[in-house]
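Fresh eyes needed here. I'd like your take on this protein's tokenised backbone:
***
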Amino acid sequence: MSLPDRDKPLLNELSGYRVVESPYRTEEGKNVSLIPEGAQKLSVPEFNRLALEGRIAGGKDGIILAEDGNQNVLVGQIVTRIWPAATGDASVDKQRFERVEVPFTLEFQGDRVKQLLGPDTKFKRESGSWGGILLNLLPIVLILVILFFMFRAQSGGARGAMSFGKSRARLISPDKNKVTFKDVAGISEAKEEVWELVEFLRNPEKFRDLGATIPRGVLMVGAPGTGKTLLARAIAGESNASFYSISGSDFVEMFVGVGASRVRDMFEQAKRTAPSLIFIDEIDAVGRQRGYGMGGGNDEREQTLNALLVEMDGFENNSNVIVIAATNRADILDPALLRPGRFDRQVVVNLPDVRGREQILQVHARKVKMAPGVSFERIARGTSGFSGAQLANLVNEAALLAARKGLKEITEAELEEARDKVSWGRERRSLAINERGRRITAVHEAGHAICLLKTPHSEPLHRVTIVPRGGALGMTMWLPSDDKMHQLRSEMLDQLVVAMGGRCAEQIVFGDVTSGATGDIKSATNLARRMVCEFGMSEKLGLIEYGEHQGEVYIARDLGTRSRNYSESTAELIDSEVRFLVDSAYERAMAILTENRDKLDILTEALMEFETLEGSQVMDILEYGEMKNPPARVTPPPMPSEVEEQPGKDDSGQNEKKEAEETRADGAEERKMEEELEQAERDPFSYNPVDEFGKDGGEKK
């Protein structure tokens, strides 16, 4: 017996098994889906035909169709018959057949199904297991988790990429900031100015009873390294108010509108924790003058500045928020930022005087092991013009020198050596210079030293050396006896004479000159031009400023406006006066060195022998013709070997070969030096001096 043709499409997926169990179960025995494998999808007409034929399977409880909760479908079975495999007995095979239930699915139509199958038809609503649901949702959950952590990483912290509109001001914790006003020295007046802020925050009633109001803003102005940021850190450590710190460059970035948004957010944070202080370091990065942008390139910066102006003193009152700013270019700040009501007070932080430098050295000496008996006053007098940062670096360099020498304490000698290193650079004894170069350098420096001691208004001589230091082959050093607020014309003229001393000595001794005076000529020309154009020290030009120097340049403001304000004839007269000052100084230097030619030769030989002479030793030569206390011969420190010997490795043969090569090289070098010395005595200028000195071989002042 064969199946009807209409049943064949329904059974084309059933080859290989007899009864299909529904619903389908996984290996774990949990429902994943009510739709079994191989289920036939019936259309509505096909279902109607099978229902009318009574071929929809039902149990003892009647026809029950499962309603899949995951999909809008009904799941059931179709009853059909199929012949089993033949047994070989025709009578048996003719009578046998098996009942087969074929699964199907149908789009859910509850009312129509009941009309076809009868009112006793039941629907059993079932759904897949929670494991299946979670398995389906797992990719979505993973994507959401990854996105969450990406946004959290990008927006986390003050510098997150997704927090462009948020302020980057950092709240300074009093526990982490240990700087107090005891750590600030050398700027007493500036400390008094800002101490009022701390007093107002601690005891505001003291000022309010008198009707006084605290300044809205304080602008600290001074050269780099004078202690402006250190003073702000001291305010943060002393005040009980919230202290926010931010740099001027933290406002403006690549996105438009970010700067203004950050300014507003910063003041909102400060208001929430009022009373509070906001410190803006290097405010010139955002507070430059408006209206000088070319092509609209500064619009974003101007918007940021406008927001800052409004927040500091706009329609709303921010009296409980005090702004402190620091800059070394107050000349380029916008005038609206400097008016009272925004920055009511400008505190000038100057370079420390001799007493302030002594106090600063004592503050930094507390952090290192200093030997007893060190005279900080003597070191302070020899560091005129040093800022607080340079003095801190000096003490640190002295500590490094003491550690290199294996000392347990820092002595005054290390402090003086560190001062020379910070001022003029480190000695370069490894630089190979032949005898001719050393002799020319010795003559050059001897000329400077003699002119320095023979001019009445020059500074005291400190040291003369022909050991290369920094970028110079030799150096004549002097130290001011005290801090000078004014400089006399006679002192400037003597400086010109000292600058010309090296070139004059070369001309007198060798009858020729070298390129070693390049730096001297440049410094002398600059000083002479300032005397003529700025200081009014020319008799022919009088007391007129000729616009050569109008302060520091701000390109956006000064572009195209710094034309000279004098005629061509006046320019020729300026050049003539500058030449007159320099030529007069050259003639004076020639006269001094010609008169002291014997001292020049003695000092040259002493420098060739000892390389470095102190000021007192040079004075002995000029006064007595010899040194009363000659220095000890300098032994260069041993240079560390480039390749360390490996212990246990037998390299005796290589060592012997290396020693033989070094012996031959030393002998050749000695013969070469003797030949050069003999040639130098016959003709000192038989070589190209530019090869020896280069462009930077001159004096470093």
Summary: Confidence is low (pLDDT under 50) at residues 1-32, 641-652, 680-701. The longest helix spans residues 652-682. The chain has four domains: 5-136, 170-349, 354-424, 426-549+567-634+654-701.
